[in-house]
Write a structure and sequence with these properties.
Blueprint (H helix, E strand, L loop, with lengths): L4 H13 L3 E3 L6 E3 L2 H35 L1 H8 L5 E5 L1 H14 L3 E6 L6 H16 L3 E7 L6 H13 L2 E5 L6 E4 L3 E9 L2 E7 L1
Parallel strand pairs: 4-5, 5-6
Antiparallel strand pairs: 1-2, 3-9, 4-7, 7-8, 8-9
Helix pairs in contact: 4-5, 5-6
Amino acid sequence: MELSEIDFRLATHTLVEAGLLQVTAGEGGFAPVAPEAAVARLLAMEEESSRSRSSELRERRSTLSTLASNLPLLQARASSDTRIEVLTGQERIAKALDGVSVSAGKEILSMHAGSPLPGEALEASRERNRAVLDRGVAMRSIHLESMTRMPYAQAHLQALKESGCQVRMTPVLPFRMILVDGVRAYVSRPARGSLMTALDAA
């Protein structure tokens, strides 16, 4: 079967990217790469991909470990005189997060389980996140891989990365949680009817 010009260009581009063809100045413009060199290149690409995945796994584990290490502290506080407030409704939760984002001084860690928030809520959070990052506060967040299947959620993740937030993906997360400077946490809880609810522990 004869290839069209477009198919031919796509095929040669793919082979060049894979290291199986090399561009030459001679007639035809391409020459096959020696099998040993091609295999070596493919192995190098696979090793680089593996290193990248390992690095992402270490960073994801570090964020989760930090979040998990603070759970006993939060549980201990729950039985003490420490203030714990139930926030009901997206508007009230957003207002609380707006306030704490101003006071954050070092780092905000978060994990986002469940369905993605509505587009309006994500847009509002992006503005809040940009303001935090502009002040030099570090942000690390872990999101569900399912977010990448929704265009508006994928756009949100890309905007986070471009703003300077460290974003990692994972198949499963237990609940939503935001930890501010290791001393204040917002944890999701079962909704009240159609209203979102969260615990504010400080």
